[in-house]
Amino acid sequence: MSQVHVHTKINGDTTEFLCEADEPLLDVLRDRLGLTGAKEGCGTGDCGACSVMVDDRLVCSCLVLGAEAEGRTIETIEGMADGEKLHPLQQKFLDHAALQCGICTPGFLVAAKALLDHNPDPTETEVRYWLAGNLCRCTGYDKIVRAVMDTAAEMRGA
Amino acid sequence: MLDKTAENGEFKVIGTRPERPDGVDKVTGRARFGADMVMPGMLIGKVLRSPHAHANIKSIDTSAAEALEGVKAVITAADFTADVPEAEYDTMVNCIAHGKALYDGHGVAAVAATSRSIANKALKLIKVEYEVLPHVTDVEEACKDDAPLLHDNIFTEGLEETPTTPSNISGRVQFGHGDVDEGFAAADKVVERKFRTEATHQGYIEPHACVGNLSPDGTGELWCCTQGHFMVRNSCAAILGLDISRLRVTASEIGGGFGGKTTIFIEPLALALSRKAGRPVKLVMSRDEVFRATGPTSSASMWIKIGAKNDGTITAMEGLLKYQGGAFKGSWVSLGCMTAFACYRADHMKTVGYDVLVNRPRAAAYRAPGAPMAAFAVESVVTELAGELGRDPLEFRLQNAAKEGDQSSYGPKHRAHGLMETLEQAKAHDHYNAPLGPNQGRGVACGFWFNFGGQTSTSLNIGADGTVNVSVGTVDVGGSRASMCLMVAEELGVPYEKVRCVVADTSSLGHNDITDGSRTTFSSGMALILSARDAKQKLCARAAKIWEIPEDAVEWVDGHARPAGPNAGEFDPMSLAEVAGKAETTGGPIAGHHECNARGAGVSFATHMVDTEVDPETGRVTVLRYTVFQDAGKAIHPAYVEGQFQGGAVQGIGWAINEEYIYGEDGRLQNAGFLDYRIPVASDLPMIDTVIIETPNKGHPYGVRGVGETSIVPPMAAIANSVSAAAGVRLTELPMSPPRVLKAMDDAKA
Predict the structure, then answer these.
(1) Most buried residue, A54, B334, B424, B713, by most Cβ within 10 Å?
(2) What gap in Å lies between CA B533 and CA B593, rounded to an integer?
(3) Residue A92 phi/psi, 5° resolution?
């Protein structure tokens, strides 16, 4: 089977790759492009560990084909910090100890950033429902929710 | 051992909440987990698994798979020819079936190919001829005389007479003291009930993953996500017939374990494939494989009987516990029996346990293995008995709680611990007196875990600039490197930021037992404190050399070498950096080491309190409020101690109301994915409040007790007590899913 030639922009860089027609975007990112920040926890869209942004949409990259990235803009965890400066969400996750093992953390950060980008003042319930697609087995979510709420407050200048 | 405490104001950095040393890597995607490793020339491995719950493997034809272009190796049980010690034999057979598939998902063969798609194609070309056998997946069914037999060479151990016929009951154990018949005769009220729990999975988000690279000369390297890379090394070396010194295992960052990564599943397969192919092989499990072939915990069938006098004194406690451990011996029923009544003092106690084999994956440890289900049963009866006696459930527990000097349910006498304090703080907490609405109930329960020490080796190296590297051999599952750095900074008197900790590979340190038994902060922490004291002694000797005074005339205070008294001479104190900077001319590098088999792990108790609401229409349970009270001995990094409390509570919430392994009539697992095996998500939960109690453990220099496991022991019982109060009927089966709760309510009305 011949491979598909895909043109895309990832974390601001023009990127081309070849992939199989049935190859998930997650595999392309991890295995072909070395962007291993997105994790495979299930491969079926249930855990959110592979969360990335495609254009302005939060997706599970295990459920998107690499070929579907043609002409699109992709943002991954590797693009969240601005050089040496962490995104406020990244810093707050550290401040609040909102991670234990850290495998789900990239997915949570990408998903939480998507939330705050369109809702800078979420309620606790809104945070909990927005992040319901991201599984964490270590923390019980308490410190994650607090970190997101605290980030939102800080970014609003509250 | 305890020589530093908060009370005497000695702690400077212990108890603070600094950023963890691996933090930035984990929030930026840099941290490398099991599946993130790539080696040059690496092949992709895949495992073929049995679709049958129980089947003889008549033949395996791998020729078509081997002939497929891109396939570099195919292995079956025939490739495992080493003379494997008995201790590792079941582990090997669990990794790859030897003549018989014992459960749905049991590995049968494995391939390594140049791509994932070729490996998948190759699996389909392997022809396995099965003779399907009758199967059994239920613990009670498996105990019956006419049950399908898993192994014809297992005879029940622990009976007075050794049986002559094989059985699915691999062993009987008994614990206790006194005479329960006498105790029940003295009771005014007796409550007895039967309980059942379903198997649950540890549910770590990271599937098992490894890369193995084994050379024809028998030297090799292995990268894997595990809770214990020394265990992986020793087990793989035994199974593959290697010298342990020739296999270097590096622990990746680990994406959760909870006990499920305390054994091996794919690691020897990757190494065997690599040996055959002559190239590195990466093996990563799918989530389906994780559910079908790893974990889970035991399902259990239990009977508990407790008697008390009218004045509230418990007179006797008795239990019968049957745990299935999957297709092999070792269900942790012993630990269930030992922990069941550990929170209580009674003159008469007896627990009997049966270890039962069924056609399910081999049970792996899950956070306080064996204890949570027993606690569910016992604490349900304790609350019910309190109710029968008209007593407040916390008061009743306070009256009967085990105290220092009491005979424990599992053997030794209790040493000082914080159970009473957890109960007293629970009783005084505003949660306990907050009003409840309609269809709401409040439950409390206690829990106990032994905690463990074990073999530990640590190393501490001081750089020329006075910064410090420490190496541990205990895998960091939840932030323990931060605690290690805190303890070393405290001991050396240097800033936390000047200490860095790594988890060293198996060729760089002495043997370390697995990160299990809540042992890491206790035992590696203790070894590092003693490593730091070793280094301080050497630092003082170097300063003495520089000052040309006797070694014992120098002491280490606040991060500086100082003359020990006026007679030692007048010298300005030298900082760690100053002494280290002169190391080259005073004798070379300065380091500290410690090796031990750590003893004195202090037990840990907790009391949990939970409010739930039951929807009378659907039976759905909502957790409204949750508070954890647990003894940490000394919280080194309180934020991560809270995290352990919260995480354990939420895993318990999942176990209590949602999670279960569901097997079909065909013996196949029906819900092998996160959609159908639903672990708690953020929208299911409230905040989890925590109260850290600090009753120092005298077996640790700073008073540390392990905290990781106790937190999962009380939740199911606390929730069952809460739901039973809300629903007006005693719930005796887990999970308390809507159909079960609704049925219990309907049955109670009928």
Answers:
(1) B713
(2) 9
(3) -70, -35
In chain A, whose CA is at the least distance from the CA of B20? A94
Range of the domain at B748: 415-447+602-750
Alpha helix ranges (H) inside B68-113: 86-95
**ipTM given for this complex:** 0.98
pLDDT digits 0-9 by tens, B643-662: 999 999 999 999 999 999 99
Residues B627 and B575 in one domain: no
The answer to whether the Cβ–Cβ distance between B29 and A131 falls below 8 Å is: no
Please provide the DSSP assignment of B382-400 as one string. HHHHHHHTT--HHHHHHHH
Indicate which CATH number applies to the domain containing B570.
Answer: 3.30.365.10
Query: Are the Cβ atoms of B35 and A37 closer than 8 angstroms?
Result: no
Q: Residues B465, B590: one domain?
A: yes
Residues B622 and B749 both lie in one domain = yes
Q: What percent of chain B has pLDDT over 90?
A: 96
Residue with the two structure tokens 């606690």: B375
Statement to judge: residues B555 and B591 lie in one domain:
yes
Question: Which chain A positions have a beta carbon within 8 Å of B692's beta carbon?
Answer: none
- pLDDT tens, position by position, A45-94: 999 999 999 999 999 999 999 999 999 999 999 999 999 999 999 999 99
Which chain A residue has the Cα nearest residue B227? A101
Q: How many beta-carbon pairs below 8 A join chains A and B?
A: 182
Q: pLDDT per residue over B567-610, tens digit each?
A: 888 899 999 999 999 999 999 999 999 999 999 999 999 999 99
Domain total in chain B: 2
Confidence of residue B7 (pLDDT cuts 50, 70, 90): low
Domain end call among B598, B626, B646:
B598
**B510 and B581 share a domain?**
yes
pLDDT at A158: 63
Q: Is residue B39 part of a domain?
A: no
Kindly state whether residues B629 and B745 are assigned to the same domain: yes
B205 vs A contacts (CB less than 8 Å): 39, 41, 47, 49, 101, 103-104, 135-137
For B110-124, what is the mean pLDDT?
Answer: 97
Chain A residues inside the 8 Å CB shell of B19: 94-95
Looking at the structure, do residues B538 and B586 belong to the same domain, yes or no?
yes
User: Residue A98: closest CA among chain B residues belongs to which residue?
Assistant: B643
Minimal Cβ distance to B682: which of A40, A76, A132: A132
CB–CB contact A44 B673 (8 Å)? yes
Chain A residues inside the 8 Å CB shell of B258: 137
Residues B526-550: pLDDT tens digits?
Answer: 999 999 999 999 999 999 999 999 9
Q: How far apart (Å, rounded) are the C-alpha atoms in residues A10 and A13? A: 5
Q: Where are the beta strands (DSSP E) in B334-487?
A: 348-356, 440-449, 454-462, 468-472
Q: Find the length of chain B.
A: 750
Which pairs count as long-range contacts for A32-35, CB under 8 Å and 24+ apart, including other chains? A32/A66, A35/A10, A35/A76, A35/A78, A35/B29
The mean per-residue pLDDT over the stretch B193-216 comes to: 97
Average pLDDT over residues A122-139: 98
Q: Which residue, chain included where needed, has tokens 């039962």? A: B356
Query: Is there a domain that residue B391 lies in?
Result: no
**Cα–Cα distance between B270 and B240 in angstroms, integer?**
11
Query: Looking at chain A, which residue has its C-alpha nearest residue B39?
Result: A31
In-domain check, residue B367: no
Chain B residues lying within 8 Å of A20, measured CB to CB: 117
Residue in chain A lying closest to B207 (CA): A41
Nearest CA in chain B to A76: B29
What is the per-residue pLDDT across A21-37, written as a single tens digit (0 to 9) for each? 999 999 999 999 999 99
Residue B46 — pLDDT band, cuts 50, 70, 90?
very high
Interchain CB distance below 8 Å, B688 and A142: yes
Sorted by where each starts, the structural domains of chain A and their CATH numbers stand as 4-79 (3.10.20.30), 88-155 (1.10.150.120)
pLDDT tens track for B254-307: 999 999 999 999 999 999 999 999 999 999 999 999 999 999 999 999 999 999
Tell me, yes or no, whether B645 and B682 share the same domain.
Answer: yes
Mean pLDDT confidence for B664-676: 98
Task: Report how far residue B229's alpha carbon sits from residue B222's, in angstroms, rounded to the nearest whole number.
Answer: 9
A71 touches chain B (CB under 8 A): no
Domain boundary residue among B533, B567, B598?
B598
Residue A143 contacts B, CB cutoff 8 Å: yes
**Interface touch A132/B681, C-beta < 8 Å:** yes
Which tokens hold the place of B669? 């697992």
Does any CB of chain B come closer than 8 Å to the CB of residue A44?
Answer: yes
Please report whether residue B235 resides in a domain: no
